Protein backbone atom coordinates (compact mmCIF):
# COMPACT_ATOMS: atom_id res chain seq x y z
CA UNK A 1 0.00 0.00 0.00
CA UNK A 2 2.84 2.37 0.80
CA UNK A 3 6.26 2.37 -0.90
CA UNK A 4 9.07 4.26 0.85
CA UNK A 5 12.49 4.56 -0.80
CA UNK A 6 15.20 5.77 1.60
CA UNK A 7 17.38 8.63 0.38
CA UNK A 8 20.17 10.43 2.34
CA UNK A 9 18.75 13.56 3.94
CA UNK A 10 19.21 15.60 7.12
CA UNK A 11 16.21 16.46 9.20
CA UNK A 12 17.67 19.68 10.47
CA UNK A 13 14.98 22.25 9.91
CA UNK A 14 17.10 25.38 10.12
CA UNK A 15 19.70 23.98 7.73
CA UNK A 16 16.91 22.72 5.43
CA UNK A 17 15.27 26.15 5.30
CA UNK A 18 18.64 27.77 4.59
CA UNK A 19 19.18 25.37 1.69
CA UNK A 20 15.65 26.02 0.38
CA UNK A 21 16.13 29.79 0.39
CA UNK A 22 19.53 29.40 -1.26
CA UNK A 23 17.80 28.12 -4.40
CA UNK A 24 15.67 31.31 -4.53
CA UNK A 25 12.62 29.45 -5.94
CA UNK A 26 9.92 30.45 -3.47
CA UNK A 27 7.42 33.01 -4.75
CA UNK A 28 9.10 32.95 -8.16
CA UNK A 29 7.29 31.81 -11.33
CA UNK A 30 8.25 28.36 -12.58
CA UNK A 31 10.03 28.25 -15.93
CA UNK A 32 8.89 26.12 -18.88
CA UNK A 33 11.20 23.23 -18.01
CA UNK A 34 9.73 22.82 -14.53
CA UNK A 35 6.18 23.00 -15.87
CA UNK A 36 7.00 20.39 -18.52
CA UNK A 37 8.29 17.96 -15.89
CA UNK A 38 5.06 18.31 -13.87
CA UNK A 39 2.99 17.70 -16.99
CA UNK A 40 4.99 14.54 -17.73
CA UNK A 41 4.42 13.39 -14.14
CA UNK A 42 0.64 13.60 -14.57
CA UNK A 43 0.88 11.52 -17.75
CA UNK A 44 3.16 8.93 -16.12
CA UNK A 45 0.75 8.55 -13.20
CA UNK A 46 -2.33 8.55 -15.47
CA UNK A 47 -3.98 11.34 -13.46
CA UNK A 48 -5.18 14.79 -14.39
CA UNK A 49 -3.74 16.57 -11.36
CA UNK A 50 -0.07 17.10 -10.48
CA UNK A 51 1.93 19.79 -8.67
CA UNK A 52 5.45 20.87 -7.73
CA UNK A 53 5.41 21.90 -4.06
CA UNK A 54 8.11 23.70 -2.04
CA UNK A 55 7.61 23.73 1.72
CA UNK A 56 9.16 26.33 3.99
CA UNK A 57 8.69 26.93 7.71
CA UNK A 58 5.00 27.82 7.50
CA UNK A 59 3.84 27.39 3.89
CA UNK A 60 3.35 24.93 1.09
CA UNK A 61 3.90 26.78 -2.19
CA UNK A 62 2.83 25.23 -5.50
CA UNK A 63 5.26 26.51 -8.14
CA UNK A 64 3.44 24.93 -11.07
CA UNK A 65 0.37 22.68 -11.32
CA UNK A 66 -1.60 20.52 -13.78
CA UNK A 67 -5.37 20.20 -13.69
CA UNK A 68 -6.11 22.84 -11.06
CA UNK A 69 -5.20 26.36 -9.95
CA UNK A 70 -2.22 26.20 -7.64
CA UNK A 71 -1.18 28.66 -4.94
CA UNK A 72 0.06 28.92 -1.39
CA UNK A 73 -1.52 27.33 1.66
CA UNK A 74 -0.50 26.81 5.30
CA UNK A 75 1.97 23.97 5.70
CA UNK A 76 -0.43 21.90 7.89
CA UNK A 77 -3.18 22.08 5.25
CA UNK A 78 -1.18 20.32 2.52
CA UNK A 79 -0.98 16.54 2.30
CA UNK A 80 2.72 16.69 1.33
CA UNK A 81 3.65 18.24 4.67
CA UNK A 82 2.72 15.01 6.49
CA UNK A 83 5.55 12.83 5.17
CA UNK A 84 7.96 14.81 2.92
CA UNK A 85 10.74 15.07 5.50
CA UNK A 86 10.93 11.26 5.58
CA UNK A 87 12.20 11.31 2.00
CA UNK A 88 11.62 8.73 -0.70
CA UNK A 89 8.49 8.02 -2.73
CA UNK A 90 5.06 7.23 -1.31
CA UNK A 91 1.66 6.26 -2.79
CA UNK A 92 -1.68 5.97 -1.01
CA UNK A 93 -4.34 4.25 -3.16
CA UNK A 94 -7.24 5.41 -0.92
CA UNK A 95 -6.46 8.11 1.62
CA UNK A 96 -9.72 7.52 3.50
CA UNK A 97 -8.32 4.17 4.55
CA UNK A 98 -4.88 5.46 5.63
CA UNK A 99 -4.41 6.14 9.37
CA UNK A 100 -2.24 9.25 8.83
CA UNK A 101 -4.42 10.82 6.12
CA UNK A 102 -8.03 9.74 6.81
CA UNK A 103 -8.68 12.78 9.00
CA UNK A 104 -6.70 15.26 6.87
CA UNK A 105 -8.75 18.33 5.72
CA UNK A 106 -7.83 17.60 2.10
CA UNK A 107 -9.40 14.12 2.49
CA UNK A 108 -12.33 14.39 4.88
CA UNK A 109 -14.12 17.11 2.92
CA UNK A 110 -13.14 20.21 4.86
CA UNK A 111 -10.81 21.34 2.06
CA UNK A 112 -11.05 18.50 -0.44
CA UNK A 113 -11.93 14.85 -1.11
CA UNK A 114 -8.62 13.41 -2.28
CA UNK A 115 -8.55 9.62 -2.56
CA UNK A 116 -5.43 8.68 -4.52
CA UNK A 117 -2.15 10.41 -3.50
CA UNK A 118 1.46 9.77 -4.59
CA UNK A 119 4.58 11.90 -4.23
CA UNK A 120 8.39 11.80 -4.27
CA UNK A 121 10.51 14.03 -2.04
CA UNK A 122 12.87 16.52 -3.73
CA UNK A 123 16.21 15.96 -1.97
CA UNK A 124 19.26 18.13 -2.72
CA UNK A 125 22.77 16.67 -3.16
CA UNK A 126 23.43 17.89 0.37
CA UNK A 127 20.57 15.79 1.76
CA UNK A 128 18.03 18.59 2.40
CA UNK A 129 14.36 18.04 1.45
CA UNK A 130 12.92 21.06 -0.38
CA UNK A 131 9.41 19.75 -1.15
CA UNK A 132 7.65 17.18 -3.34
CA UNK A 133 6.57 16.25 -6.85
CA UNK A 134 2.95 15.21 -6.18
CA UNK A 135 0.15 13.53 -8.23
CA UNK A 136 -3.38 12.92 -6.89
CA UNK A 137 -6.94 12.06 -7.88
CA UNK A 138 -10.41 12.02 -6.41
CA UNK A 139 -10.90 8.31 -7.06
CA UNK A 140 -8.86 5.39 -5.68
CA UNK A 141 -6.08 3.99 -7.89
CA UNK A 142 -2.69 2.25 -7.69
CA UNK A 143 0.56 2.95 -9.60
CA UNK A 144 2.85 0.24 -10.79
CA UNK A 145 6.42 -0.04 -9.59
CA UNK A 146 7.53 1.23 -12.99
CA UNK A 147 5.31 4.32 -12.67
CA UNK A 148 6.69 5.01 -9.20
CA UNK A 149 10.24 4.64 -10.50
CA UNK A 150 9.57 7.15 -13.30
CA UNK A 151 8.03 9.52 -10.75
CA UNK A 152 11.29 9.31 -8.77
CA UNK A 153 13.26 10.00 -11.96
CA UNK A 154 11.18 13.09 -12.62
CA UNK A 155 11.84 14.27 -9.04
CA UNK A 156 15.56 13.87 -9.65
CA UNK A 157 15.18 15.86 -12.89
CA UNK A 158 13.49 18.69 -10.96
CA UNK A 159 16.33 18.77 -8.40
CA UNK A 160 18.83 18.82 -11.28
CA UNK A 161 17.00 21.79 -12.81
CA UNK A 162 17.05 23.51 -9.40
CA UNK A 163 20.80 22.90 -9.18
CA UNK A 164 21.40 24.17 -12.71
CA UNK A 165 19.42 27.31 -11.98
CA UNK A 166 21.32 27.87 -8.71
CA UNK A 167 24.66 27.21 -10.37
CA UNK A 168 23.83 29.57 -13.22
CA UNK A 169 23.05 32.29 -10.68
CA UNK A 170 26.27 31.58 -8.77
CA UNK A 171 28.25 31.56 -12.02
CA UNK A 172 26.73 34.88 -13.00
CA UNK A 173 27.63 36.32 -9.59
CA UNK A 174 31.14 34.88 -9.85
CA UNK A 175 31.50 36.30 -13.34
CA UNK A 176 30.35 39.70 -12.13
CA UNK A 177 32.74 39.50 -9.17
CA UNK A 178 35.53 38.37 -11.47
CA UNK A 179 34.84 41.31 -13.77
CA UNK A 180 34.88 43.72 -10.82
CA UNK A 181 38.16 42.19 -9.63
CA UNK A 182 39.62 42.44 -13.13
CA UNK A 183 38.64 46.11 -13.38
CA UNK A 184 40.02 46.75 -9.89
CA UNK A 185 43.35 45.08 -10.72
CA UNK A 186 43.53 46.90 -14.05
CA UNK A 187 42.83 50.22 -12.32
CA UNK A 188 45.48 49.54 -9.68
CA UNK A 189 48.04 48.53 -12.30
CA UNK A 190 47.33 51.64 -14.33
CA UNK A 191 47.38 53.93 -11.28
CA UNK A 192 50.50 52.94 -9.34
CA UNK A 193 53.77 54.63 -10.24
CA UNK A 194 55.54 51.28 -10.13
CA UNK A 195 56.43 49.55 -13.38
CA UNK A 196 54.82 46.10 -13.48
CA UNK A 197 55.55 43.50 -16.14
CA UNK A 198 54.37 39.91 -16.48
CA UNK A 199 55.41 37.18 -18.86
CA UNK A 200 54.42 33.65 -19.77
CA UNK A 201 56.63 30.66 -19.04
CA UNK A 202 58.74 31.40 -22.14
CA UNK A 203 59.52 34.95 -21.08
CA UNK A 204 57.22 36.64 -23.61
CA UNK A 205 55.52 39.72 -22.13
CA UNK A 206 51.83 39.35 -21.37
CA UNK A 207 51.17 42.38 -19.15
CA UNK A 208 52.75 45.84 -19.06
CA UNK A 209 51.16 48.54 -16.93
CA UNK A 210 51.10 52.27 -17.67
CA UNK A 211 54.33 53.16 -15.85
CA UNK A 212 56.24 50.36 -17.59
CA UNK A 213 54.74 51.29 -20.97
CA UNK A 214 55.78 54.90 -20.47
CA UNK A 215 59.36 53.88 -19.76
CA UNK A 216 59.32 51.60 -22.79
CA UNK A 217 57.74 54.18 -25.10
CA UNK A 218 54.60 52.07 -25.63
CA UNK A 219 51.44 54.14 -26.08
CA UNK A 220 48.62 51.57 -26.21
CA UNK A 221 47.69 49.28 -23.34
CA UNK A 222 47.45 46.27 -25.71
CA UNK A 223 50.83 46.93 -27.29
CA UNK A 224 53.70 44.90 -25.83
CA UNK A 225 57.35 45.32 -26.88
CA UNK A 226 59.27 42.23 -27.85
CA UNK A 227 62.21 40.95 -25.81
CA UNK A 228 64.67 42.07 -28.50
CA UNK A 229 63.31 45.61 -28.41
CA UNK A 230 64.00 46.04 -24.70
CA UNK A 231 66.98 43.71 -24.32
CA UNK A 232 69.75 46.26 -23.87
CA UNK A 233 67.76 48.94 -22.02
CA UNK A 234 68.74 47.56 -18.64
CA UNK A 235 72.17 48.06 -17.08
CA UNK A 236 73.97 47.13 -13.94
CA UNK A 237 74.07 49.75 -11.15
CA UNK A 238 77.15 51.32 -12.75
CA UNK A 239 74.86 52.50 -15.58
CA UNK A 240 77.36 51.28 -18.20
CA UNK A 241 77.35 47.47 -18.29
CA UNK A 242 74.26 46.11 -20.07
CA UNK A 243 72.41 43.25 -18.43
CA UNK A 244 72.72 39.95 -20.26
CA UNK A 245 69.49 38.27 -21.36
CA UNK A 246 69.54 35.84 -18.44
CA UNK A 247 70.20 38.73 -15.98
CA UNK A 248 67.00 40.62 -16.79
CA UNK A 249 64.42 40.55 -13.95
CA UNK A 250 61.81 38.38 -15.68
CA UNK A 251 64.39 35.82 -16.79
CA UNK A 252 65.89 35.67 -13.30
CA UNK A 253 62.45 35.11 -11.74
CA UNK A 254 61.62 32.40 -14.28
CA UNK A 255 64.90 30.72 -13.40
CA UNK A 256 65.08 31.34 -9.63
CA UNK A 257 61.33 31.70 -8.79
CA UNK A 258 61.80 34.98 -6.92
CA UNK A 259 63.77 38.24 -6.90
CA UNK A 260 64.08 40.68 -4.01
CA UNK A 261 65.41 44.22 -4.27
CA UNK A 262 67.80 43.91 -7.22
CA UNK A 263 69.07 47.39 -8.14
CA UNK A 264 69.73 48.29 -11.77
CA UNK A 265 69.66 51.17 -14.24
CA UNK A 266 66.87 51.42 -16.80
CA UNK A 267 67.30 53.47 -19.97
CA UNK A 268 63.85 54.68 -20.99
CA UNK A 269 62.58 55.24 -24.51
CA UNK A 270 63.33 58.95 -24.05
CA UNK A 271 66.99 58.10 -23.23
CA UNK A 272 66.55 58.98 -19.58
CA UNK A 273 68.54 56.84 -17.15
CA UNK A 274 66.65 55.94 -13.98
CA UNK A 275 67.59 53.77 -11.01
CA UNK A 276 65.07 51.01 -10.30
CA UNK A 277 64.65 48.33 -7.66
CA UNK A 278 63.31 45.06 -9.08
CA UNK A 279 61.33 42.47 -7.15
CA UNK A 280 59.39 39.55 -8.58
CA UNK A 281 57.78 36.18 -8.09
CA UNK A 282 57.09 33.22 -10.35
CA UNK A 283 53.47 32.15 -11.01
CA UNK A 284 52.47 28.51 -10.64
CA UNK A 285 49.36 26.57 -11.62
CA UNK A 286 47.56 24.38 -9.07
CA UNK A 287 49.48 21.46 -10.54
CA UNK A 288 52.77 23.09 -9.57
CA UNK A 289 53.68 23.93 -13.16
CA UNK A 290 55.39 27.30 -13.66
CA UNK A 291 53.15 29.41 -15.90
CA UNK A 292 54.90 32.78 -15.85
CA UNK A 293 56.45 35.54 -13.77
CA UNK A 294 55.61 39.00 -12.45
CA UNK A 295 58.16 41.75 -11.79
CA UNK A 296 57.70 45.15 -10.11
CA UNK A 297 60.17 47.97 -10.88
CA UNK A 298 60.25 50.84 -8.39
CA UNK A 299 61.83 54.12 -9.48
CA UNK A 300 64.39 55.01 -6.77
CA UNK A 301 66.22 57.70 -8.75
CA UNK A 302 65.20 60.49 -6.37
CA UNK A 303 66.18 58.35 -3.39
CA UNK A 304 69.62 57.65 -4.86
CA UNK A 305 70.15 61.34 -5.67
CA UNK A 306 69.08 62.24 -2.14
CA UNK A 307 71.38 59.55 -0.70
CA UNK A 308 74.35 60.85 -2.66
CA UNK A 309 73.63 64.38 -1.49
CA UNK A 310 73.23 63.13 2.06
CA UNK A 311 76.54 61.27 1.91
CA UNK A 312 78.19 64.36 0.50
CA UNK A 313 76.62 66.45 3.25
CA UNK A 314 77.81 63.95 5.88
CA UNK A 315 81.31 64.16 4.46
CA UNK A 316 81.18 67.96 4.58
CA UNK A 317 79.78 67.91 8.13
CA UNK A 318 82.48 65.49 9.24
CA UNK A 319 85.13 67.78 7.74
CA UNK A 320 83.60 70.80 9.42
CA UNK A 321 83.37 68.93 12.71
CA UNK A 322 87.06 68.12 12.39
CA UNK A 323 87.84 71.76 11.73
CA UNK A 324 85.54 72.85 14.56
CA UNK A 325 87.13 70.38 16.96
CA UNK A 326 90.56 71.69 16.04
CA UNK A 327 89.29 75.24 16.57
CA UNK A 328 87.82 74.27 19.97
CA UNK A 329 91.12 72.71 21.03
CA UNK A 330 92.98 75.83 19.91
CA UNK A 331 90.42 78.06 21.66
CA UNK A 332 90.71 76.06 24.89
CA UNK A 333 94.50 76.35 24.72
CA UNK A 334 94.18 80.07 24.04
CA UNK A 335 91.70 80.49 26.91
CA UNK A 336 93.98 78.63 29.29
CA UNK A 337 96.88 80.86 28.31
CA UNK A 338 94.66 83.95 28.56
CA UNK A 339 93.42 82.96 32.01
CA UNK A 340 96.96 82.33 33.18
CA UNK A 341 98.06 85.63 31.68
CA UNK A 342 95.16 87.50 33.32
CA UNK A 343 95.92 85.93 36.69
CA UNK A 344 99.65 86.73 36.41
CA UNK A 345 99.13 90.29 35.20
CA UNK A 346 96.41 90.97 37.78
CA UNK A 347 98.63 89.65 40.56
CA UNK A 348 101.55 91.78 39.34
CA UNK A 349 99.32 94.86 39.37
CA UNK A 350 98.22 94.41 42.96
CA UNK A 351 101.41 95.70 44.61
CA UNK A 352 101.97 98.75 42.40
CA UNK A 353 98.34 99.78 42.80
CA UNK A 354 98.52 99.29 46.57
CA UNK A 355 101.68 101.43 46.63
CA UNK A 356 100.11 104.16 44.53
CA UNK A 357 97.05 104.17 46.73
CA UNK A 358 99.22 104.39 49.88
CA UNK A 359 101.25 107.34 48.56
CA UNK A 360 98.07 109.18 47.57
CA UNK A 361 96.68 108.60 51.08
CA UNK A 362 99.90 110.03 52.60
CA UNK A 363 99.78 112.98 50.25
CA UNK A 364 96.17 113.68 51.20
CA UNK A 365 96.87 113.37 54.92
CA UNK A 366 100.07 115.50 54.91
CA UNK A 367 99.15 118.23 52.48
CA UNK A 368 95.39 117.96 52.03
CA UNK A 369 94.73 121.05 54.19
CA UNK A 370 97.24 123.10 52.23
CA UNK A 371 96.02 122.17 48.76
CA UNK A 372 93.75 124.47 46.85
CA UNK A 373 90.39 123.17 45.59
CA UNK A 374 91.73 122.14 42.18
CA UNK A 375 94.66 120.15 43.66
CA UNK A 376 92.39 118.53 46.26
CA UNK A 377 90.03 117.49 43.47
CA UNK A 378 92.90 115.99 41.49
CA UNK A 379 94.16 114.01 44.52
CA UNK A 380 90.62 112.74 45.24
CA UNK A 381 90.14 111.74 41.59
CA UNK A 382 93.46 109.90 41.59
CA UNK A 383 92.45 107.98 44.74
CA UNK A 384 89.10 106.99 43.23
CA UNK A 385 90.77 105.89 39.95
CA UNK A 386 93.29 103.74 41.82
CA UNK A 387 90.49 102.21 43.93
CA UNK A 388 88.48 101.41 40.79
CA UNK A 389 91.56 99.87 39.21
CA UNK A 390 92.08 97.76 42.34
CA UNK A 391 88.46 96.58 42.14
CA UNK A 392 88.88 95.68 38.46
CA UNK A 393 92.09 93.76 39.16
CA UNK A 394 90.39 91.91 42.02
CA UNK A 395 87.45 91.05 39.72
CA UNK A 396 89.83 89.77 37.03
CA UNK A 397 91.62 87.64 39.61
CA UNK A 398 88.29 86.19 40.76
CA UNK A 399 87.27 85.45 37.14
CA UNK A 400 90.59 83.76 36.41
CA UNK A 401 90.42 81.64 39.57
CA UNK A 402 86.82 80.61 38.80
CA UNK A 403 87.87 79.16 35.44
CA UNK A 404 91.46 78.14 36.04
CA UNK A 405 91.79 76.84 39.57
CA UNK A 406 90.89 73.14 40.11
CA UNK A 407 87.37 72.48 41.40
CA UNK A 408 87.48 70.70 44.77
CA UNK A 409 84.04 69.19 45.50
CA UNK A 410 82.85 68.55 49.00
CA UNK A 411 79.90 69.15 51.31
CA UNK A 412 78.84 72.81 51.35
CA UNK A 413 76.43 74.04 54.04
CA UNK A 414 74.65 76.94 52.35
CA UNK A 415 73.67 78.42 55.75
CA UNK A 416 77.35 78.78 56.67
CA UNK A 417 78.13 80.21 53.24
CA UNK A 418 75.42 82.88 53.58
CA UNK A 419 76.76 83.86 57.03
CA UNK A 420 80.29 84.21 55.60
CA UNK A 421 79.02 86.26 52.65
CA UNK A 422 77.10 88.68 54.88
CA UNK A 423 80.19 89.04 57.08
CA UNK A 424 82.39 89.79 54.06
CA UNK A 425 79.88 92.34 52.74
CA UNK A 426 78.96 93.84 56.13
CA UNK A 427 80.25 97.31 55.23
CA UNK A 428 78.34 97.32 51.89
CA UNK A 429 75.20 95.90 53.53
CA UNK A 430 75.22 98.48 56.33
CA UNK A 431 75.98 101.43 54.06
CA UNK A 432 73.18 100.39 51.73
CA UNK A 433 70.80 99.53 54.60
CA UNK A 434 70.24 96.21 52.86
CA UNK A 435 68.11 93.39 54.26
CA UNK A 436 69.84 90.08 53.38
CA UNK A 437 68.28 86.84 54.60
CA UNK A 438 67.31 83.27 53.77
CA UNK A 439 63.94 81.56 53.34
CA UNK A 440 63.81 78.48 55.49
CA UNK A 441 66.71 76.25 56.39
CA UNK A 442 69.17 75.87 53.52
CA UNK A 443 70.47 72.37 52.71
CA UNK A 444 73.96 70.95 52.44
CA UNK A 445 74.92 70.49 48.79
CA UNK A 446 77.92 69.10 46.92
CA UNK A 447 80.29 71.66 45.43
CA UNK A 448 83.49 73.68 45.78
CA UNK A 449 83.05 75.68 48.97
CA UNK A 450 85.24 78.59 47.83
CA UNK A 451 83.53 78.90 44.44
CA UNK A 452 80.00 78.61 45.89
CA UNK A 453 80.88 81.34 48.41
CA UNK A 454 82.24 83.53 45.61
CA UNK A 455 79.09 82.82 43.54
CA UNK A 456 76.63 83.92 46.25
CA UNK A 457 78.82 86.87 47.25
CA UNK A 458 78.83 88.19 43.67
CA UNK A 459 75.04 87.85 43.42
CA UNK A 460 74.39 89.63 46.76
CA UNK A 461 76.97 92.31 45.88
CA UNK A 462 75.26 92.92 42.51
CA UNK A 463 71.81 93.07 44.12
CA UNK A 464 72.97 95.81 46.53
CA UNK A 465 74.93 97.77 43.92
CA UNK A 466 72.03 97.88 41.49
CA UNK A 467 69.36 98.66 44.09
CA UNK A 468 66.27 100.68 43.32
CA UNK A 469 66.69 104.33 44.39
CA UNK A 470 63.23 104.46 46.00
CA UNK A 471 63.49 101.45 48.36
CA UNK A 472 65.86 99.63 50.65
CA UNK A 473 67.55 96.62 49.10
CA UNK A 474 65.91 93.33 50.09
CA UNK A 475 67.71 90.11 49.10
CA UNK A 476 66.42 86.60 49.83
CA UNK A 477 68.22 83.29 49.25
CA UNK A 478 66.28 80.01 49.03
CA UNK A 479 67.02 76.44 47.93
CA UNK A 480 64.68 73.56 47.07
CA UNK A 481 65.32 69.98 46.04
CA UNK A 482 64.46 68.78 42.51
CA UNK A 483 64.59 65.23 41.07
CA UNK A 484 67.98 65.80 39.48
CA UNK A 485 69.55 68.47 41.70
CA UNK A 486 69.11 71.70 43.66
CA UNK A 487 67.25 74.87 42.70
CA UNK A 488 68.89 77.89 44.35
CA UNK A 489 67.14 81.24 43.92
CA UNK A 490 68.52 84.69 44.83
CA UNK A 491 65.81 87.37 44.57
CA UNK A 492 66.07 91.13 45.00
CA UNK A 493 63.80 94.18 44.70
CA UNK A 494 66.26 96.22 42.68
CA UNK A 495 66.23 97.82 39.26
CA UNK A 496 65.75 94.53 37.41
CA UNK A 497 67.36 93.50 34.13
CA UNK A 498 65.39 94.22 30.94
CA UNK A 499 64.56 91.09 28.90
CA UNK A 500 66.49 92.35 25.87
CA UNK A 501 69.74 92.42 27.92
CA UNK A 502 69.45 88.96 29.53
CA UNK A 503 70.95 87.08 26.59
CA UNK A 504 74.26 89.00 26.83
CA UNK A 505 74.41 89.98 30.51
CA UNK A 506 76.69 87.00 31.30
CA UNK A 507 79.21 88.03 28.65
CA UNK A 508 82.58 89.40 29.82
CA UNK A 509 82.42 93.16 30.55
CA UNK A 510 78.69 93.32 29.66
CA UNK A 511 76.73 96.00 31.55
CA UNK A 512 73.11 97.13 31.37
CA UNK A 513 74.03 100.75 32.19
CA UNK A 514 77.75 101.41 31.58
CA UNK A 515 77.26 105.12 32.40
CA UNK A 516 76.42 104.32 36.02
CA UNK A 517 80.00 103.06 36.56
CA UNK A 518 78.78 100.76 39.35
CA UNK A 519 80.71 97.71 38.20
CA UNK A 520 83.01 96.22 35.57
CA UNK A 521 80.75 93.64 33.90
CA UNK A 522 82.78 90.73 35.30
CA UNK A 523 80.71 89.60 38.30
CA UNK A 524 77.96 87.74 36.39
CA UNK A 525 80.52 86.29 33.96
CA UNK A 526 82.33 84.87 36.98
CA UNK A 527 79.02 83.46 38.29
CA UNK A 528 78.37 81.75 34.96
CA UNK A 529 81.84 80.17 35.04
CA UNK A 530 81.33 78.85 38.55
CA UNK A 531 77.91 77.38 37.74
CA UNK A 532 79.16 75.72 34.53
CA UNK A 533 82.14 74.21 36.39
CA UNK A 534 79.58 72.57 38.67
CA UNK A 535 77.61 71.25 35.65
CA UNK A 536 74.69 73.58 36.38
CA UNK A 537 72.76 76.39 34.69
CA UNK A 538 71.97 79.99 35.54
CA UNK A 539 69.11 82.12 34.28
CA UNK A 540 67.36 85.38 35.10
CA UNK A 541 63.69 85.99 35.75
CA UNK A 542 61.39 88.84 36.78
CA UNK A 543 60.10 89.33 40.33
CA UNK A 544 56.53 90.56 40.90
CA UNK A 545 56.69 94.20 42.05
CA UNK A 546 60.11 94.73 40.48
CA UNK A 547 63.52 93.17 40.81
CA UNK A 548 65.40 90.12 39.58
CA UNK A 549 65.38 86.43 40.43
CA UNK A 550 68.62 84.60 39.66
CA UNK A 551 67.86 80.87 39.32
CA UNK A 552 70.71 78.41 39.78
CA UNK A 553 70.20 74.72 39.05
CA UNK A 554 73.02 72.60 40.45
CA UNK A 555 73.32 68.82 40.00
CA UNK A 556 73.37 66.38 42.90
CA UNK A 557 76.73 65.04 41.74
CA UNK A 558 79.43 67.15 40.11
CA UNK A 559 80.57 66.10 36.62
CA UNK A 560 83.73 63.97 36.55
Concise synopsis of the structure shown:
This protein has helices at 13-22, 32-45, 145-191, 210-216, 227-230, 249-256, 301-367, 373-404, 414-424, 426-431, 449-465, 523-533; strands at residues 49-55, 59-66, 72-74, 89-92, 116-123, 129-137, 194-200, 205-208, 234-235, 258-267, 273-284, 290-299, 409-413, 435-438, 444-448, 474-482, 485-491, 537-542, 548-555. With 560 residues, the chain is α+β, with helices and mostly antiparallel strands.
Element layout with pairings:
Layout lengths: L12 H10 L9 H14 L3 E7 L3 E8 L5 E3 L14 E4 L23 E8 L5 E9 L7 H47 L2 E7 L4 E4 L1 H7 L10 H4 L3 E2 L13 H8 L1 E10 L5 E12 L5 E10 L1 H67 L5 H32 L4 E5 H11 L1 H6 L3 E4 L5 E5 H17 L8 E9 L2 E7 L31 H11 L3 E6 L5 E8 L5
Parallel strand pairs: 14-16
Antiparallel strand pairs: 1-2, 1-6, 2-3, 4-5, 5-6, 7-8, 7-12, 9-10, 10-11, 11-12, 13-15, 16-17, 17-19, 18-19
Helix pairs in contact: 2-3, 7-8, 8-12, 9-11, 11-12
Assign a percent range to the helix content.
40-55%
Fraction in beta strands: 15-25%
> Whole-Å distance between the termini?
112 Å
Beta strand count: 19
The coarse silhouette is elongated
Decide which structural class fits the backbone.
Answer: alpha+beta
Strand order in space, largest sheet: 3-2-1-6-5-4
Radius of gyration: 54 Å
Organism: Actinoplanes palleronii
Protein name: histidine kinase
Keywords: Kinase, Phosphoprotein, Transferase, Two-component regulatory system
Enzyme class: transferase
Amino acid sequence: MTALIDLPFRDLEQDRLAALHEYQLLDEPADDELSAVVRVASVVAGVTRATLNLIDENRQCSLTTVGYEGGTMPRDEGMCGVHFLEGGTIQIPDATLHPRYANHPQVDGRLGKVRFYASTSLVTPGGYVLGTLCVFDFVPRTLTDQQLARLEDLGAVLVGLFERRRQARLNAAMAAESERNRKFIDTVLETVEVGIAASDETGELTVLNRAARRWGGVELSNELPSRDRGRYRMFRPDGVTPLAEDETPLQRVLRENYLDGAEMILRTASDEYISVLASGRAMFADTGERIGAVVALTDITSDRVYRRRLEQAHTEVALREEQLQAAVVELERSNDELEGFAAAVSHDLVRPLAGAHGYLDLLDEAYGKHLDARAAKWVGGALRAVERMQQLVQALLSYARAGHAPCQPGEVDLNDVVEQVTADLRTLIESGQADVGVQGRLPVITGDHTLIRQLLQNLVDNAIKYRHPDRRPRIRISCSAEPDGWHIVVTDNGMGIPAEHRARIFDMFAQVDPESRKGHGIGLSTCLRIVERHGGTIELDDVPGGGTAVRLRMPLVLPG
